[in-house]
């Protein structure tokens, strides 16, 4: 399973699409650092991702608020869940190190979550914005 943005995930919103691409790039770097045992990079990548995900979610939530988007609460709850699960993953790494199990979990969780979220609630938001 590749952690990679692909054009099928494009929502047609320049700011949001650009942030999604950056998230995929950095998560791919995190997975790569874990799988190659470059532990010096892992802490920094976690730090970046925690901060960048928060900034991205805030941007989407601002767009939803400005558009009076009816699905805003459900969508924001999914963001909060991601923040929680990312923090749990970071703790799992800090406790266990970059074991194969932690690396596999990181790769599958992030790839599945991002695709499902982008093709689900993010796409719903993009369609709503286009349909106004
Ligand atoms: Fe998003
Ligand atoms: Fe989102």
Care to describe what's here?
With 132 residues, this protein is an all-alpha fold. The chain has one domain (12-131): Four Helix Bundle (Hemerythrin (Met), subunit A). It is built from four helices and no strands. Helix 1 runs antiparallel to helix 2, helix 2 packs antiparallel against helix 3 (72-96) and helix 3 packs antiparallel against helix 4 (100-131). It is elongated. The termini are far apart. Bound molecules: fe (ii) ion (2 copies). One fe (ii) ion (FE2) binds at residues 60, 75, 79, 117, 121-122.
Can you tag this structure with a few keywords?
single chain; mainly alpha; Four Helix Bundle (Hemerythrin (Met), subunit A); 81% helix; binds fe (ii) ion
In a nutshell, what does this entry contain?
With 132 residues, this protein is mostly helical. It contains 4 helices and no strands.
CATH topology: Four Helix Bundle (Hemerythrin (Met), subunit A)
CATH class: Mainly Alpha
Number of domains as seen in the coordinates: 1
From N to C, what is the helix and strand string?
A: HHHH
Averaged pLDDT: 94
Alpha-carbon distance between the two ends:
36 Å
Q: Radius of gyration, rounded?
A: 15 Å
Percent helix, as a range, is over 70%
Name given to the CATH homologous superfamily: Hemerythrin-like
Strand content: under 5%
Main sheet makeup: none
- CATH architecture, by name, is Up-down Bundle
Flag low-confidence runs: none
Bound molecules: fe (ii) ion
- Class from helix and strand fractions: mainly alpha
Shape: elongated
Count of DSSP E strands?
A: 0
Separate helix tally: 4
């Amino acid at each position: 399973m590749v952690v990679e943005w692909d054009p099928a995930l494009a929502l047609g919103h320049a700011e949001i699409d650009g942030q999604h691409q950056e998230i995929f790039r950095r998560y791919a770097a995190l997975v790569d650092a874990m799988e190659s045992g470059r532990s010096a990079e892992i802490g920094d990548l976690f730090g970046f991702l925690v901060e960048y995900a928060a900034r991205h979610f805030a941007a989407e939530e601002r767009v939803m608020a400005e558009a009076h988007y009816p699905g805003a609460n459900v969508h924001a709850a999914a963001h909060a869940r991601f923040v929680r699960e990312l923090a749990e993953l970071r703790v799992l790494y800090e406790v266990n190190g970059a074991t194969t199990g932690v690396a596999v979990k990181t790769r599958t969780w992030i790839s599945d979550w991002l695709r499902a979220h982008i093709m689900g609630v993010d796409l719903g938001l993009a369609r709503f914005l286009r349909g106004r």
